[in-house]
Amino acid sequence: MVTPQSEGKSIPPRVGLVVFDLDGTLADTFEDIAQATNHVLKAFGCPTLPTETIKGYVGKGARNLLGQLLGPDKQPYVADATALWLDYYERHPTDHTQLYPGAIELIEWLRAHGVRTAILSNKMNSLTQRISAELGLAARVDFVRGESKQWPRKPDPALLDHLIQHFGVKREEVLIVGDSVSDVELARNAGVAFCGVLTGQATREDLERLGATWVAENLVVLKSACEMFVVPPSGGRT
Questions:
Q1: Residue 3: is its pLDDT beyond 70?
Q2: 21 part of the active site
């Protein structure tokens, strides 16, 4: 089910723009990320880790991920480790990656009802674009962007603010859908509604504590909620 978590908040009654996270929200990318990470850990003489452990460190970029997992004695080598990680991951970005059930159906329902859609990720932009294309997402959404020098990463709201202006939607008509702390913080920083999904990193308790507007078990449940409660923008797509 989808449940409102913050007193006085709800999914916007009229939605003009839905912005999705990628990892853990639209797609289960964690096994491929873990494979690349363990490749680096082995190369630097560190023990490998289960995917579930690595999953908890995803969301703030490869350099941050490796900086935490390599340990204090290997911090001087984080840049080299990141380059090795990227070399491996760029060759295996979707070996095990799959869309979560309902991802395509939700996006297509939103588009059919005149709602703009976008993907914002803290993954490197070239990888975000490639993975989104290979999974069939890029052709279905209006905008895809990962980490780049042009825009600060989430939870900074600068790029989201740009999208709101670009698509000409009101802030109260924007919904962020994500699975992590950085996603709910992005929504909070931008002053827009947030729906958490429980397919990725954060627990329901994490999302509730940070003030998530709504929490859904998965995208199938979220689509059902949108069909019941969301009023598309008047006038359709422009």
A1: no
A2: yes
Considering the domain architecture, whether residues 151 and 195 belong to the same structural domain is answered as yes
107 and 70 part of one domain: no
Q: Does residue 4 carry a pLDDT above 50?
A: no
Catalytic residue among 21, 23, 32, 179: 21
Kindly state whether residues 57 and 168 are assigned to the same domain: no
Report which residue type is found at 184. V
Q: Rounded distance, CA 10 to CA 113, Å? A: 20
Examine the pLDDT at 216 and tell me if it is beyond 90: yes
- Determine the pLDDT at residue 29: 97
Q: Based on the fold, state whether residues 86 and 156 are members of the same structural domain.
A: no
Residue 167 pLDDT greater than 50, yes or no:
yes
16 falls within a domain: yes
Mean pLDDT of 197-202: 92
Phi and psi at residue 118, to the nearest 5°: -145, 160
Domain that holds residue 189: 2-28+97-229
The residue type of 199 is: T
DSSP codes of every residue in 35-55: HHHHHHHHHTT-----HHHHH
59 and 111 in a single domain? The answer is no
Judged against a pLDDT cut of 60, whether residue 1 lies above it is answered with no
Q: CA-CA distance, 156 to 138, in Å (whole number)? A: 23
